[in-house]
Amino acid sequence: MTILPILTYEDPLVHSECEPFDFDRPQIDIHTFAQDLCDTMYHHGGVGLAAPQVGVLLCIFVMRLDRHSHATVCINPEITRQSGTFSMEPEGCLSFPDGFRPHVKAPTKMIARFQGRDGTWHDPEFRGIQARCYSHELDHLDGRTLLDRASPEAIEIAKERAA
Ligand SMILES: [Zn+2]
User: Fold this and answer.
1) How far apart are CA 88 and CA 103, in angstroms?
2) Is 133 helix (H, G, I), strand (E, B) or coil?
3) What's the alpha-carbon Rg for the chain, to the nearest Å?
4) Residue 137 catalytic?
C-alpha cells in the first residue's frame, strides 16, 4: 500500500490542466496508480481525490459515496447531460486546510461518462452529493479548485470560519 503525498492548493500542479489517459499507450501503470490514489484517499478520510492533487497531470480521479464505501475509479471522465437545477452546499478538499469549506454551486443531477481501469465506458446517473463530488473532481482535471468554483464572498466567509 502506497500513500502518495497530497499537494496543497499552493502548488502550481494543482492548477494545471490534465491530459487524457491513453489506454493504448499508457503513460503510467493505471492499476498501481488507481490503487495508490484510492489508498491515499482512504488514508485521509476523503470522499474524492484527483490525479493532479498528487502531481500526476492525467484525467483520472477516484470518488466514493461516503467514508465507508468503496471507491469508483473514473478515467477520462466527462458529463454528457446535467439538470438545470443546482444546489449551494459547503465543500471541502484534501488540498485545502480541514476547516476551509466554502459554499459552491453544483448540479443536482447528471449523466456522467467515464472509463474504468479496464477501459470499459460507464455512464451512470449521479444525484445530490454524488453529482457534487463528481463535479468537484472533474474540475480538478481542468486545474480548477474551490478558489475558482466558489464566489469571492463565499471564500472570505469560509476563510474566517476556518481561522
Ligand atoms: Zn478537491
Assistant:
1) 6
2) helix
3) 15
4) yes
CA of 50 to the centre of ligand 1 (A): 7
Distance of CA 153 to the CA centre of its chain: 23
- Summarised one tens digit per residue, pLDDT across range 7-65 is 999 999 999 999 999 999 999 999 999 999 999 999 999 999 999 999 999 999 999 97
Q: What pTM value is reported for the model? A: 0.95
The residue to which cell 454551486 is assigned: 105
The length of the chain in residues reads 163
* Residue 40 forms part of a structural domain: yes
Distance 49 CA to ligand 1 centre (A): 6
Select which of 125, 137, 153, 160 is catalytic. Answer: 137
Amino acid at 38: C
Tell me the CA–centroid distance for residue 29 and ligand 1, in Å: 23
Distance 133 CA to ligand 1 centre (A): 9
Q: Residue 150 maps to which CATH number? A: 3.90.45.10
Which run of H or E residues covers position 86? strand 86-90
Whether residue 6 is contained in a domain is answered as no
Phi, then psi, of 113 in degrees rounded to 5: -145, 125
Do residues 134 and 49 make contact, with C-beta atoms less than 8 angstroms apart?
no
